[in-house]
Design goal:
alpha/beta; 5-stranded mixed beta sheet; 3-stranded antiparallel beta sheet; 15 helices
Length: 308
């Protein structure tokens, strides 16, 4: 019989990246954590962790144990939520990872209406870049994630997918607006450019297209904040890439202009709601997902310019 406490400690170490940080999170002495992991390894005859210059890394055997333990916890949550649903109760906790670009759409109305319709459900919303959000889903730390332009990943199950092209956003009256055609990456060269950092879906997509077209994009501004990029454009400093809905208010107010890209990969970008493949959602998590699909503009239809 696997020691459940040792597995819980192992999962926390893998999540935090060190024995010390795991012990601090668990509020116990690090020596207790170390002894539990050593006893687990001795009882199974395998190594579950190893240390290197970058910190503590999980072994293949350790990852099997982490996946097993997280699957157990997930299955238990699902059963308990189903038992509550039989009694007419919908309660529990739902954890979501969401990119900053979705936040305005999420909190404008869907979040409030969900909390009103389901007063027994607590929400935990974590803002994360795409790479981090995918990791949180795969590791079982969140129920599902809202992602923009995610890669194909066999570990993810896509519940909702809508088309939201990655457009060029420019200040009002910018010279690029006079082109009256789809824009290429070559057209953007020479103008101050702002880009999201590498862990974000928008940046991954732009990098892939630039690599394919053998273009080196020299950005004047790098950031992990959609708000910073938006203000970079609204203030007239430079241009950037964003889906239409992320900047819809500034667009409607005439503060910025939007131009379609000529590259199929950018025009085919999608927004998705994903969970871990093979891991069933609880009743409350499934209710939340369906509510966001109906209530968020990002997920109840394609981009507005595609529908006009």
């Amino acid at each position: 019989m696997l020691n459940q406490r040792a597995l819980a400690y192992l999962c926390e170490i893998v999540r935090r990246g060190s024995f010390r940080r795991a012990a601090d999170q668990l509020n116990i002495d690090v020596s207790v954590v170390s002894r539990k992991i050593k006893a687990l390894e001795e009882s199974l005859g395998v190594s579950v962790l190893h240390r290197d210059s970058s910190g503590v890394q999980v072994t293949e055997s350790g990852q099997y144990l982490v996946d097993h333990f997280q699957s157990q916890l997930s299955a238990e949550k699902v059963v308990l939520s189903q038992l509550q649903a039989v009694q007419g109760l919908v309660s529990g906790q739902v954890s979501i990872a969401v990119g900053e670009g979705f936040i305005a759409d999420l909190v404008s109305e869907p979040l409030e209406s969900f909390m009103t319709d389901y007063p027994g459900i607590e929400l935990d919303v974590t803002m994360a870049g795409m790479d981090e959000a995918i990791g949180l889903v795969i590791q079982g730390h969140v129920d599902f994630a809202l992602l923009y332009a995610p890669p194909v990943d066999a570990q993810l199950e896509c519940h909702v997918e809508t088309k939201h092209p990655l457009d060029v956003i420019v200040p009002a009256g910018h010279p690029l607006m006079a082109l009256n055609r789809q824009v290429t990456l070559r057209d953007i060269e020479g103008y101050p450019l702002g880009l999201m950092n590498n862990p974000f879906g928008m940046r991954h997509l732009v990098n892939a297209v630039a690599h394919q077209e053998r273009i080196h994009l020299q950005a004047r501004l790098h950031t992990n904040s959609v708000a910073v990029l938006r203000n970079f454009v609204v203030s007239g400093i430079g241009v950037t890439f964003m889906p239409q809905l992320t900047v819809i208010d500034a667009l409607d107010g005439g503060d910025i202009g939007i131009l379609e890209m000529a590259h199929p990969a950018l025009n085919g970008a999608t927004a998705q709601i994903v969970s871990r493949q093979g891991r069933e959602l609880t009743v409350s998590a499934n209710a939340c997902l369906k509510h966001l699909q109906r209530g968020m503009r990002f997920f109840n239809s394609d981009a507005p310019r595609l529908l006009s």
